[in-house]
Amino acid sequence: MPHIITYTEEIEEHGYCQQRPELKTGDKYLHEVDGKQRLRIVLSVRFDKYVWENVAQWTTVIEEYFEEEYTLCVLSVDKSDVPVFVAHGMIGVLTCDKDKICGELVIPPKVKGTIVKGVARYGFFECPNLTKVVFSPMVVIAYEYAFAKSGIEDMAFNEEVAVMVHITAVDDCERLPKFDRIFDRPFPGLYLMRGGEIFQTWEENLRKDHFII
Question: Cα separations (Å) of 177 from 132, 153, 174, 183, 213?
Fold first, then answer.
């Protein structure tokens, strides 16, 4: 399991300039600790309170993986080789490389021998040039905000495999209308989940109104 780091910092604000921490929610980066690179995913950056006048307290929550828990690989996307990471079987792209994800992204079952089981939290968050995502039969899950705020217009699934897509995975994907509202047809093999609960049928999604995201 990844390690969770939580820390607070006090930031002084100047006049009307609202200062924020350097990191922001969804950032994915490598951080050196004792000469070793660790993979970090920023889960949240939130304002807590004003400690005193013009000094604000912020809390940052980070998911961290040690070197032995992740692999850096190269994935071919739209005829270009793009560096990606696979952590505990979950794939994603570092924030510094997100603009290199262009066109159609085919998520493979393996990347250079490393098994891919799903898409990490914020895996392809804010990838504006990403237009389509194709899930291989082995990729069965997309975690929180996996493709949120990206440019995707379409997603393709193997209808014989239950793909679990977190209800926030495609938040603010304005070009993906079928995930923005209830469509007039079901999506066989596509499951949605919220928290630890999985809604296993299209009809149940309709009743619970959890398909609107």
Answer: 13, 8, 7, 9, 11
Q: How far apart are the first and last CA of the chain?
A: 28
Distance between CA atoms of residues 60 and 165, nearest Å? 25
Nearest to 27 by CA among 1, 64, 2: 64
Pull the structure tokens for residue 166.
Answer: 């977190």
Lookup: tokens for 40: 């970090």
Of 127 and 140, more confident: 127
Integer Cα distance of 103 and 150 in angstroms: 11
Tell me the two tokens of residue 110.
């393996």
Give which of 38, 48, 50 is closest to 5, Cα–Cα: 38
pLDDT over 70, % of the chain: 78
Calpha distance 121→56 (Å, rounded): 28
Global confidence as pTM = 0.82
